[in-house]
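Example 5.3 — Gfo/Idh/MocA family oxidoreductase
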Amino acid sequence: MTKLRWGILGCAGIAIRACIPGIQKSETGVVTAIASRNLQKSQETAAQLDIPTAYGSYEELIADPNIDAVYIPLPNHLHKEWTIRAAQAGKHVLCEKPAALTTVEVEEMVAACESAGVLFAEAFMYRHHPRYERMKEIIASGEIGDVRGIHGTFTFNNPGDAKNVRFVKEWGGGSVYDVGCYPISAARLLLGREPEAVTTHAFFSPEHDDVDMMMSGLVEFSGSVALTFDCGMWANFRNTVEVLGTLGRIEVPSAFVTPTEESGHFIVYTAEGRREEKVPYLNQYALQADDLAYAAWGEKPLRFAPRDAVNNMKVIDACLQSARERSRIIIKQ
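Solution (predicted structure tokens):
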């Protein structure tokens, strides 16, 4: 079987822990090369993960004719530059979330990929797991009635890591960029429409370059439905989604982190009682790689169009503006 040949731009933790092993476990992909600005680091990572080629610069990797697609797990402020350069080199792009720092940047990235005739996808791995399609089926069936609201959380506690790129404002640090983007994208996915307005409140920490270490928000959708969410990097760990309906609700105890044999299941509550929806244990990162590969080969369309990344970034922009200005922000579509 033909394999999509991947190159990895950078040795970020998410790449080493999750995305590279996911590609290696996928049906369609093989990791051919990895690059770092430190050749020794890329060589050590390549040896650790059984990757054939290591480069000491990103330029060398995107110039490699044996690479079909690149995965970009670089700090957020580098996403735009290397997405555009990879596209110009004829590589499909899977870019880690958030796609960039602003909506304008993401629009430029999408346009560059379209102009070069390559695919662009934002790496929200959780959306590729079939449990979200099952949740959408339950909502569409009317079993939980009309949706009245969604609540999402994603928090973790890591304020002491002084060198963490998440704490550098100019590099796109902050909790809404890093983890708040997940419940925002989940609500858009489950409701199947784009939000109209946002109001947020945030804790901007002087100890962490004034990035938002915690944010709580209200995201308004049409039909008098809203997402309430909170995200944080200085709080106890959780990652949940609840969909509240007039006749029942869906609870997802581990909504975004790669599910284990047990934690991927979700709970449905109705008048008939409580039931656990059991879902297969599948590697979300492998599914994400497969979806891009099948699209690259023309066998299926991209699971999520590039415009999806633009629309999610619009909400993130509005969240940050609202928190800074302490005001309600209308989102222009």
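Remark. The chain is about 35% helix and 30% strand.
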